[in-house]
Amino acid sequence: MNDLVIALIVFACVFGSAMLGLFLRAMLPEHHLSEESIGVVKLATGLIGTIAALVLGLLISSAKSSFDTVNSELVRNAASIILLDRVLAKYGTETQEVRGLIKQSYGRSIQILASRDPAELARLRGSEVLKQMESLQRKLEELSPRTEAQRQLQASAIQIAAEVLAVRRLALLQSAGSVPITLLIILVLWLSIIFGAFGTFASPNGFVIAALLLGALSASAAIFLILEMNTPLDGVISISLAPMREALAMLGQ
């Protein structure tokens, strides 16, 4: 499901609970709204609010860490691709075909990432792309070095290519992370209980409704941020492809 749709559902649940609380206030007997009752409910709501705040904070921190990790790994991958191309250039003209294939494959990967299409991104994680990378590795292994310098360059190229493949696969796997649906449902339930209590013990007026609206928007925006940063290769909040495009421009020179 689209992250924005989930955020809107969260907003509807949280703000709807607040409005339900305002409605129930008019229906409850007076003794349910006594200071003793309100005090107990505030204590319970405070406990739930603390737990919800901790979970939200941990989820945001985890999502930001995942986002930064994927970003740094793709930058590292771009640097390794440039290094691989330069090593092959030093090897000699025999690597011209392999360098061309690397540039073509890397350019295609950037196009898929730039499309932000989940179906296309799934292809990058598929076996077809993995086989293409393994085919490039075999071409490097099939080179026939004539000098000691070329043998060292071939060994370096094979090692760098293996690292590029490993980092790329790791980044793609980490970018597919998602928030467990059970955790999300429980968190929304907690937020709904909190806002329901806010509405129940507040006098219904325009200022209160506006405050509850802004609070519900903030809570749903936090959920939206978490979901978006957990999928850094697509969506509204995504990593920059500028380092990869700069690396592509340097390949083959």
TrEMBL record:
Domain of life, source organism: Bacteria
Listed transmembrane segments: 5-28, 40-60, 178-201, 207-227
UniProt entry keywords in alphabetical sequence: Membrane, Transmembrane, Transmembrane helix
Annotated InterPro entries: DUF4239 (IPR025333)
A Pfam family reported for this protein in Swiss-Prot or TrEMBL: Bestrophin-like
Name this polypeptide is given: DUF4239 domain-containing protein
Protein species of origin: Paraburkholderia hospita
